[in-house]
Amino acid sequence: MTKIFCIANQKGGVGKTTTAVNLAAALANIKQRVLLVDLDPQGNATMGAGINKSGLTSSIYQVLLGMGDVKNIRQRSEAGQFDVLPANRDLAGAEVEMVELENRETRLKDALMKVADEYDFVLIDCPPALSMLTLNGLCAAHGVIIPMQCEYYALEGLSDLVNTIKIVHSKLNPDLKIIGLLRVMFDPRMMLSQQVSAQLEQHFGDKVFKSIIPRNVRLAEAPSFGVPGVNFDTASKGAQAYVEFGKELVTRIKNI
Ligand code: ATP
Ligand code: MG
Hints:
By secondary structure, the chain is of the alpha/beta class. 44% of the residues lie in helices and 18% in strands. An 8-stranded mixed β-sheet has the order 3-4-2-5-1-6-7-8, sandwiched between helices. The longest helix has 20 residues, at 152-171. It binds adenosine-5'-triphosphate and magnesium ion. Residues 16-17, 40, 44, 125 line the site of magnesium ion (MG).
């Protein structure tokens, strides 16, 4: 059955897009059929997958406003071997325009249902806000993957996100659960990283993925080449960590 996962954290710059793009590529490399949904007007996942956001004739904006179908608007990431529902700054307008529309929280879900059976995984890269766009992501998903940097303030924002997920679960989407927390940009030489990492394991137990993504410059360089880090430098520590994470996720969802 298709698994639809949001990559979400309302904090900015924590590694959501890097995780979404590299997880998509890692899953594609183990023969999974993947759709990457860019739900952020910044369009970083689109660019990271090698698709030029400035050249789009249509995007997820049309999908959310009911002016186009995913089937016609999705594109192929040759660099990643997965499909992409692309975004650009047009999407910022959708937030306001959707307020007037019916079923505004479930517009993404309704659109994805038409193609879901073509994929093993649909991964949704959320914007850094608990906004109407993120709400659409959470309503469409079976689960949430939360990338986290192991720093002091990371834990503060986490409770807001967990509360939002609880509310969406009880009021809008009973399927929704937290799949796991992923430690990213990890620097083992920093005492604080170790401490926060241990705290996370204490609080969240099995919900913390075993795979840890290190801080790795090759992952940061890859987007400017339009190639997922996993395929940009396969030997790098960052690429290998995302490959491991992809395998861990596949195993984990067999058990839920
Ligand atoms: P936003 O909230 O703006 O959407 P985000 O949560 O999607 O941000 P990213 O864009 O994935 O975060 O990452 C923020 C920055 O950190 C980027 O420049 C990215 O290249 C870099 N980065 C992400 N993960 C790593 C890593 N493991 N090692 C080194 N750099 C990283
Ligand atoms: Mg992002």
